[in-house]
Write a structure and sequence with these properties.
This protein is 80% helix and 0% strand. It contains seven helices and no strands. It starts with a helix and ends with a helix. The protein is mainly alpha-helical.
């Protein structure tokens, strides 16, 4: 599997990743690190406690990582939670709606992680 095929499979933006990382070797390096990172675990913990500051910080961190890697589908979902808990912003969603959004994020994360695992196995 090529990196481009992986991006097609997981709803990523390969061109964006190339603009930021400049070469496939760097994209591959950081995608493989993303698969092993704890960024999603921190968001899960924050979601369990519904701590607004922790939700903002963990969602913001995950959004940044996803944006830099061109993982647009995942970044878009995480962005919704980031903006919901941005300091000073009024909440628009109920806790149940936030938990639904988090479920969507975790499902997309698992799809992304599975795709990266397939990519890793093809190396």
């Amino acid at each position: 599997m090529t990196i481009q095929e992986l991006y097609d499979q997981i709803g990523g933006n390969y061109e964006q990743a190339v603009r930021i990382m400049r070469m496939d070797k760097m994209i591959s390096k950081y995608l493989l690190k993303f698969e092993d990172s704890d960024v999603c675990d921190r968001l899960k913990e924050a979601g369990e406690s519904m701590d607004p500051a922790a939700l903002f910080e963990s969602a913001h961190a995950m959004k940044g990582v996803c944006g830099n890697l061109g993982l647009d589908s995942l970044a878009a979902l995480v962005s919704e939670v980031t903006e919901e808990f941005r300091p000073g912003a009024a909440r628009k969603l109920s806790d149940e709606e936030v938990k639904t959004k988090l479920g969507e994020i975790f499902a997309m994360y698992e799809k992304t992680k599975a795709g990266i695992g397939e990519y890793r196995a093809s190396l």
